[in-house]
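Lab notebook page, bench 4
Experiment: in silico fold of construct C2
Operator: M.H.
Input chain length: 309 residues
Purpose: comparison with the prior construct
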Amino acid sequence: MTKVFIDGSAGTTGLRIYDRLARREDIELISLTEELRKDIGARKDALNSADVAFLCLPDSAAIESCGLVENENTVIIDTSTAHRTAPGWTYGFPEIKGVGDGVASAKRIANPGCHASGFIALVAPLVQCGAIDSSTELSCFSLTGYSGGGKKMIAQYEDPRRDPLLAAPRMYGLTQKHKHLPEMSAVCGLEKEPVFCPIVAPYYAGMEVTVPLFRDQINCGAGEISDIYREYYRGGLVRYSGASEEGFCSAGAFEGRDDMEVSVFGNDDRLLLVSRFDNLGKGASGAALQNMNLVLGLEQSFGLCVQEE
């Protein structure tokens, strides 16, 4: 039986991972009492006793936890931003060729950011096949449910006396220094970070990431982009679909699921590349568990909520 420790199990992602693993008969969860949850010695023992350790912590705490691991067999899956572009770490997006290929044999796996996952799923395949030049200057618009902001933001949005401004979508990352930008450009092989517009809206979960393109930004016909996605995404938890909801495209369509859909809309002159998924699923805990399944030699969708092909 695989021993798993979740360092930071009180946070949104940690709780979701814990709830899912608690239902699995192949997993033995290593738990600490509330009194020991922040005790360094207890955490060190738990980390080194685990076959797989999930770090659901702020960046500085995740770095500290990595320094506590002395057991060379312990696999670390870090859900923080700390190691997503760090040398020696495998980026945990197995569907992206040349980036996530080594997840199954990796000992240090950096779980992707939620916004970043949607952008990378759309852009990386096109850069890899030459449909977009690495020097192309891109923009990205991303809608997310408020659960992506963690416990504090969830409490704010669900407070009956909440600020009236929370009733409408709110743009953030206004300084263009969002923490996901380094991985978005690095993993896609872009020379410049995109102009990024993240927006949190008053619904619980679900994400919709859009990359708009003019025809002169691609090195192929507009219709070929769909073909590239169909061929690229085979066998993983990302799939191509050109579907919409009668001309609408809801950011909440994938709430509760762990897979992702990529689509292409628009016309021959102007394209909209769109990815939809759950910010708590393929954007967080679902991706982390997919990576763990690969490490354990299991079907990557084992225990996850995905659309049957």
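Observations: The longest strand covers residues 207-214. DSSP finds eight helices and 13 strands in the chain.
Next step: discuss at group meeting.
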